[in-house]
Each structure stands twice: as C-alpha cells, then as structure tokens.
Amino acid sequence: MSMQTNPIHHKRPHLPFGDQRDAPWYGQDILSVKQFSRDDLEYIFDVAHEMRVMVQRVGTFDLLKGKILASLFYEPSTRTSSSFTSAMERLGGSVIPINEVRYSSISKGESLPDTVRTLECYADVIVLRHPEVGASALAAKYARKPIINAGDGVGEHPTQALLDLFTVVEELGRVDGLTVTMLGDLKYGRTVHSLARLLSLFHVDLNYVSPDILRMPPEIIEELNVKGVPQAEHGSLEAVLPETDVLYVTRVQKERFENLEDYDRVKDAFVIDAGTMRRAKERMIVMHPLPRVNEISMDVDDDPRAAYFRQMEYGLYVRMALLAMVLGKA
Ligand code: ASP
C-alpha cells in the first residue's frame, strides 16, 4: 500500500460487482479529500447510488463476505462508527470494534503504528478516528492494509465530506452554480475543512459565517483562493441567507477549547429556527454533520428543507461504496 494519491481516474466500470483486483481504488488509503478529482467523485457517487438501490431492494448482500473491518476509535463517535459497522455488515462482512481504547493495549502505552500493525493481521481494512491531525497518515505509513481516516482531530474528515457532497447531489441534483454557506465553528470543525476543499473542485460560491474566534483557518482560505474559489466571511447570516442553496451548520466543538469561558461566550452564537427558515429560499437544504447541540432548533426538523437526518442515511451508502472500492469489489 502506498500513501500516494490515486493516480488512476477511471470512469466507472460496469457493475454488477465482480472481484476487480485491478480496480483503481483497490488497496488505497483514504486520508484526505485532497486525493480526489471530480472523476473520482463521480465514480464514488455512482457506486454509492448503486448501494442505495441495493439496500432499498435487498437490505444486505454478500459483496464483502469474509472480509473484516477493524474499527479503531480513539475519540467518541456515534454516526461514523455505527455507519461503518452497518456498511460492512450490509455488505456481508464483519467488524472488530475497538471503541473503548482504555480497555485495549493502547492504555498500556502501545503506539499507533504498533496498534495498526497488530490489527492488520486480523482485518482487511482499518477505519481510524484519532484526536491528532495527521494520525491517519502516520498509520498509513506503517500499515499494508488500507487506512480510512474517520476524523483526525481538527484536521480532516474525508468520508464525511464525501457523504456531504453526495447529499447535495442527491438532494439538489448538482453542485456547480450553488451558493454554500458554512455556519458555526469553522475553526475546529474538521468537516467544514474537508468539505470546503472538496467543493473547490466545483464552481461554487462559499460563505463563511462564524464568531470572530471561530473563523475558517487562513491556510484553507488561502488554499481555495489559489484555486480561484469565491469566498466571503461574515459575522451574521442575514445578508447571505436569501441567496444560500446549502446551509451547512456545525456544532461549536467544545472539546477543542482550552478555555471553557470562550466556549460559553460563542456556543449559542447562531441558532437556526423556523423564523430563519422563513427567510431562506424555497428550494435549498439545511445540513449538519451532527451531533447538534442548540444550533438547529427542533422546530426545523419537519421542514422538508431539513436534510440532516437524510444526510446520515446517505453516509451509509457512501461508506459502503468506499469499503467495496478499497477492497477491490467495485
Ligand atoms: N460528527 C462530526 C465529527 O466527528 C461533527 C461533530 O462532531 O461536530 O467531526
């Protein structure tokens, strides 16, 4: 396995799925959204769409029968860990779950390279969530089996960004030409870091709305500037709401704050409620990687534009697609 980005950008091969060991993603790591081209996204979303159809038609099928996923989470997770487990099991595979690292040898001081070299003796692919930026890249350097980054601290969350974009495609039918407004904790929210980078492959207008201390990191703004992406920062949602096609709301990431007084000052800076929705476009969507705290009031949940629960379901199909791809079955 190599840490290189995927050098081959095939159009989607014909399904039904066969054992395609020469498949372009076979054995690849998924570490950062920077490794994807638009063609790659088209391929992933085609496979994810097939997964959606298959799950709705038959529920579970045997594409990854006999394959084992090691699910290694050093940070809390509900959706990411359970959707990867569900994805693997819906494809007929099985899972070694390591969520409580305090009960594993990690609490004895085992290093990340040693832990992944252990798990790959028993599993075919490793999904890793870790509090440190770059942890997945480090794991990938030592592992022969594919590593999938399920969030590395404030760094990236590439599978979330893929499912976010898949949600936009399935819900709005396109990405080019959209105005995407990211709201909330843009400093520590790794999902918006990955999503902004992924959106830079498209013709979109990006708005960043956040408290001053939680602005999008300058290096990401600069990275997108170089690519010519129109970006604007705002302290309030009002001016950009009427033109917004995708409102991407994030939680203020309490666990990343050194000073909890700072957290208390900004935690409820933005709350989307039914009143906000009255000022939004008729055809738009509200997304959230979840969990939410107070950022979206429950009175928005029944609005057809509230896409955040559907977004979770799209995550299952994208993660099924990724597992099938890196295991050479798509
Ligand atoms: N679940 C997402 C993540 O792991 C978002 C969040 O925690 O706020 O980054």
Bound molecules: aspartic acid
Structural class: alpha/beta
What is the helix tally?
10
Overall pLDDT, averaged? 93
Helix content: 25-40%
H and E string:
HEHEHEHEHEHEHEEHHEH
Global shape: globular
Multimerization state:
single chain
Give me the count of strands: 9
Largest sheet: 5 strands, parallel
Proportion in β-strands: 5-15%
Strand order of the largest sheet: 7-6-5-8-9
Distance between the termini: 18 Å
Our Rg estimate from Cα atoms comes to: 19 Å
State the low-pLDDT regions, or none: 1-17
Structural write-up:
It is a single chain. The chain is an alpha/beta fold and 330 residues long. The protein is 35% helix and 13% strand. The protein contains ten helices and nine strands. The strands form two sheets. The protein has a five-stranded parallel beta sheet. Strands 2-1-3-4 form a four-stranded parallel beta sheet, with helices on both faces. Helix 2 (79-90) links the parallel strand 1 (68-73) and strand 2 (94-98). Helix 2 (79-90) crosses helix 10 (308-326), helix 5 (158-172) packs across helix 6 and helix 5 crosses helix 10 (308-326). It is globular and about 55 Å long. The protein starts with 37 loop residues before the first helix and ends with a helix. Bound molecules: aspartic acid. Aspartic acid binds at residues 151, 157, 190-191, 251, 289. Aspartic acid binds next to helix 6.
